[in-house]
Amino acid sequence: METKIPVKEIMTRDVITIQGDRDVQDASMKMVEKEVGSLVVVDKENKPIGIITERDLVRKVLSKGKSIGTRIKKVMTEPLVSVNKNEELNEAIRKMRDLNIKKLPVIESGKLEGIMTETDVLSISPEMNEILGEATTFTQNPNRTEDWETGICESCSSFSKNLQSVEGGVLLCEQCREETEVEGAEAQ
């Protein structure tokens, strides 16, 4: 069984953003306040246009002797490298590795949906063997009564943190549940 994990299952949904016309001091203060190492830079319509990281502040501002009043859009990293929420995790990790980036915004139809960080990736690694082991045991036990939130969808074989048991005791991810509901509604 091939296990596909979409980025949306591990991404951080609460993304801290900042407008590009603000200055780098505002960016650094917001990073400290929110305890994050980067901010997704947005335009006036709240569309993501870049990212500013601690590394950008050191390399593009401090080491160059630039003013703390420098506008973020002058030193942010652009174009913004991103993934979509349904992209497979292994592809997103490969992109991060190949481009030497630690944070990957998740954008769907021009809208910022989340951000995938190295920490998000590492947080699932220790649990993966346990989860896959539980999923195997769980699948082998037809008399299950427990509800599981995390594991492998029995329809599409994708890893999900949001499994729910549906009619017949089948565990489905959110996308498969939605598809099942649509098919059921169309049949009526």
Radius of gyration: 20 Å
| CATH level-3 fold name of the largest domain | CBS-domain
* Helix percentage: 25-40%
Outline? elongated
How far is the first residue's CA from the last residue's CA? Answer: 33 Å
Name of the CATH superfamily of the largest domain: CBS-domain
CATH class of the largest domain: Alpha Beta
Mean pLDDT: 83
Q: What is the count of DSSP helices, taking H or I runs of 4+ residues? A: 6
- For the record, the count of structural domains works out to 2
CATH architecture of the largest domain: Roll
Q: Report the uncertain regions.
A: 135-147
Q: Report the major sheet.
A: 3 strands, mixed
| H-E order | EHEEHHHEEHEEEEH
Order of the strands making up the biggest sheet: 1-2-3
Binding site for Zn(2+): 153, 156, 173, 176
Domain ACP-type MB: 148-183
Protein name: CBS domain containing protein
Domain CBS: 11-68, 76-131
Quick structural overview:
The protein has 188 residues and is an alpha+beta fold. The chain has 6 helices and 9 strands. It has 2 domains: 10-118, CBS-domain, CATH 3.10.580.10; 121-187, no CATH class.
Describe the structure.
The chain is of the alpha+beta class and 188 residues long. The chain folds into two domains: 109 residues, CBS-domain; 67 residues, no CATH class. It contains six helices and nine strands. A three-stranded mixed sheet has the order 1-2-3. A hairpin with a 6-residue loop joins strand 6 and strand 7. The longest helix has 23 residues. It is elongated and about 65 Å long.
